[in-house]
Amino acid sequence: MNRTRFAPDRGLAGRMVFTMFLIGLLYVVFVGVLMVLLRHSWPVILIFAGGLFVAQFWFSDKIAAFSMGAREVTPEEYPELHGVVDRLCALADMPKPRVAVAASDVPNAFATGRNADNAVVCATTGLLRRLEPHELEGVLAHELSHVAHKDVAVMTIASFLGVLAGMITRIGLWGGFRARGGRDQNAAIIALLVPLVSAVVYAISFLLTRMLSRYRELSADRSAAQLTGRPSALASALTKVSGAMARIPTEDLRKAEPFNAFYFAPAIASRESLSNLLSTHPTLEQRLEQLGRIAAELGQG
């Protein structure tokens, strides 16, 4: 990663390299299998897969920000928010990202962008309304840590394969396969194999990204607490945000749930042990326990 004052995390770096290696291998195998099964359509597969990958990676920040209703704001509009980001960037010795606000009562924040020069850090109006300045500082330090460690870009690339598997399955089932069904005696077999291969690929990529996502959230909590020297502020923000989520209408939480992997805290947290294995975030208890250990190490009780 670029040299910043955020503590380097070798565990996170190793997991990102390992995940990208497996995702890349899975991607090559997936495209290869599709080219064998759909041998007459391989140029379309290559062009579609390559084009979708470039688009998702290059425009990931704009797509994510637009999808979550983020709007870039000026220092005149939100001076306190910009002030916190300015202080943290100076403390971390890193470039200042663009600052955005999303008009949502769901208290949350996220960071996106393929690198530090294209990064966006966004807070919702619900978060800004509920948190004290020192708590907001902890949350934004957490999000800036994602930018510094470049795990936002890795998550974008890692999630691409699942998107590709789903889209190719839909196109194949409702497009090419059905059109050739009357002439090709293997069409029925292909129509069964492609969804099966896509489902396996999606399941593997889903599990890989979930495992990485949970670790990167713990890493960002750790880095933010060490940078600011106030793990209690981040713990307070986590507790307050989690408590506020319980009072948000379920309909609003369901709308936010698809973006859980980007958010500071999940819109709908998993409570069952099996669900926790598939969740994007570690449990609140795990996050608070880690912050408690850091506070003890810093002599804060």
Short overview:
The protein is mainly α. The protein has helices at residues 10-37, 42-58, 60-67, 79-92, 125-130, 133-149, 151-180, 187-228, 231-245, 250-256, 273-278, 284-297; strands spanning 70-72, 98-102, 109-112, 120-124. 68% of the residues lie in helices and 6% in strands.
Please characterize this protein's 3D structure.
- The chain is mainly alpha-helical and 301 residues long.
- It has 2 domains: 107 residues, no CATH class; 172 residues, Zincin-like (2-Layer Sandwich), CATH 3.30.2010.10.
- Helices cover 68% and strands 6% of the residues.
- It is built from 12 helices and 4 strands; from the N terminus they run αααβαβββαααααααα.
- The protein has a 4-stranded mixed beta sheet with strand order 1-2-4-3, sandwiched between helices.
- The radius of gyration is 21 Å and the shape is elongated.
CATH class of the largest domain: Alpha Beta
Number of domains: 2
Radius of gyration: 21 Å
Tell me the name of the CATH homologous superfamily of the largest domain. Metalloproteases ("zincins"), catalytic domain
Low-confidence segments, given as residue ranges, are none
- Strand order of the biggest β-sheet: 1-2-4-3
Apparent shape: elongated
CATH architecture of the largest domain: 2-Layer Sandwich
What would the CATH topology of the largest domain be?
A: Zincin-like
What is the H/E order? Answer: HHHEHEEEHHHHHHHH
GO biological process, one term: proteolysis
Membrane topology: Multi-pass membrane protein
Subcellular location: Cell membrane
EC number: 3.4.24.-
